[in-house]
Amino acid sequence: MTRKRLALLAVALAVVLAPGAEAYLKLGTSVNGDVLGIRWTTFPVRYFIFDGDDDRVSADELRAAVARAFTTWTESPSARISTTFGGFTTAEPFDDDQVSVIGFQARPEMERTLGAATFEIDTSNGQLVAADIFFNSTFDWSVAPSGESGRFDLESVAVHEIGHLLGLGHSALGETELNSSGGRTILGKRAVMFPIAYPRGSIEDRTIEADDIAGLGEVYASSATTRGFGAIRGRVTLGGEGLFGAHVVALNIQTGALVAGFSLTDRGDFVISGLEPGLYVVRVEPLDDADADSFFDEDTDVEIDFRPGYFPRLVGVPPGGAGEAIVITVAAK
Amino acid sequence: MTRPGFAVRAGMAVVAAAAVVTPAFAQTAQAVPPRQWEFAGGVSFVAPATSGTTSADLLRPDGSTLPLFRARRETSSGLGLEAHLGTAVARRLDVEMSGVWMRFDARAVISGDAEDVRGVTLTETLTRFSLEGAAVWRFVDGVRVQWFVRGGAGWMRELSSDMALASDGIVVNAGAGMKYWPGAARPGQGRFGIRAEVRLLGRRGGIAIDDGSFRLWPIVAGSALMRF
Amino acid sequence: MLRKLLLSALVVFATGSPLRANLVVPTEFREIVADATLIVRGTVTDVRVVRAAGRGLDSIATLAVQTVLKGEADRFVSVRVPGGELGTRRFVMVGAPTFKVGQHTILFLRRDAEGAWRPVGLAMGVYRVQAERGSGRPVVAPPVVGGWTASVSGPIVRGDARRVTVPVQDFESVIRLIVAGRALPRDVARSERPVR
Prior knowledge:
By secondary structure, chain A is of the alpha/beta class. Chain A has helices at residues 3-17, 59-74, 154-165, 210-219, 223-226; strands at residues 28-31, 34-37, 45-50, 83-89, 101-105, 113-122, 127-136, 141-142, 152-153, 174-178, 184-189, 230-238, 241-242, 247-252, 258-262, 269-275, 278-285, 309-310, 315-317, 326-330.
């Protein structure tokens, strides 16, 4: 494709997608009518560890597990970020102290939440003031190197929550099942940012996957880190109309890397970036097995009344750009 | 997008230089005959191939894999146009430069979809340009019929259908064929014939349509020949 | 230059989605129903923010109750969730539901240690009533319920034809059956859906 055509394409991309369109993996907040992405602009990000023990995990062990989890993200090739441990503190997570604190907290009223990230934002300028993470001490935790049966792996949950702290939203790259004895379990997933945890004893969430890496790269994109990566862009439609909330999955046919995104406008626009150059299978499915509020704003209506399908062509991803926009037409259930 | 590697360029330069230099070695006590060139233009056909399966795997809690779907990688048969320009550098040895344009489909045949989506084959039409140098050894060098073996290497570029994705690489090939000259040779006049050959094509680099390992594609080609 | 243009184009629209994120243990819908001591449908009439000692800010939403599906409730119910905005400070717990005045919702609630009503499992206990595209009638994106919107056991298949938006009355019928401990009929009665 000639340079002129690529330039025109880029302009068209900006004009078409700018109004109201949002990326898929990033967290944002509305300030003065604008949606601003949650991201750190100053590095290293300084965090403190609450100096309170869990019944099985000391503050020191918590610090070590959190440090390993941060390293998992800072070593990602898709972004140049850094963090630093500022020390132990008696301040708990969620104290209004303008300091980022990570620690255990007993939250029995959040009986199904292993952990959560919080943000304190200055709405006068949209600046991120602080971010905290709590691990719910009503659950049983472990820092054993190989995991511990019957206990949730602290490092795995820390990797997930730190992903949120860095500005990532949820991924829908995962499948679950219902058990005959009642209850729901995870079958498998391919993103640490999938909102449902692996069962007790598993340590698989300590390692970030291609989808997570691509998401981090999108939050902290720079020419140095995006050089050589490309994107797939397009629309998802049903009956000629755009779909909001369709889950779009891209598979590199050579490497097997899986990266996904969502259609995030009423026109069904989506972009999946951070992709290695090559040919991709693109698959679309409804997010009808998940709590939509875990992914999207409460004001948006997620379309679920369609069947999974594939874009009929392999999609080429060039380095440093995107090919022609594709239109994926799905069928109603 | 890269230029042909240094080794490839060097090899092509050696072939070109040999075409100019080697007549000195072919000199005999008799008068040196004028250099003759052969030009061949024709079509080629590449056979379809399968190159393994990529699995869109999720990870189970124990680290084993759960496929969301599988994609079997295939390349379709393809048709191309090719041209060769060569000259003798020794009694039975020719060197030639070749250019090939070929179009074929890369395919992914979907199976094992977790949501039971069936009967899906995804395609993308790719175009390959290649420029290579080759050595041709005529092991049967008759007046009308010549049998030869050929080996060459060169640079290629592959493009997706929207030309957004382009990738360079190296092609190597080896094969055998036959040249047939139906008419008698007349001094000072061109001679026309036909050329047919089979080759095995290997590629490294280019658009990633397989698992990256070195694979061979069988090619059948036929050309019209002109010697001048 | 070209790549910067492309990169900036990608960044222009990459403005972020609102804050929804925490890590949860997987939960089946019947567990949510069982854990809730109060299930109501209503409309949010007021939201105010208070300081929660050691917990940042909380929002207290007042719901005008239209239907009680489990438990007992007055005409209004106050629901407390983490997060809110006071002055120029916004505190957000990623994954906690947020409420806006005028929002129609079905809530699965139980009291915390201090007696405040809170949604079961945070966002798991909140179901938005939305207007169906085209008809405008109130519908809900249904949860995964074995025997209703999914098989009783086995993988939950995305694109399952049983999981489409359902009229809110159908969803309430299912809740009542689960509360009563009765088996779900194979096909819960559904109104005609507009064809797209």
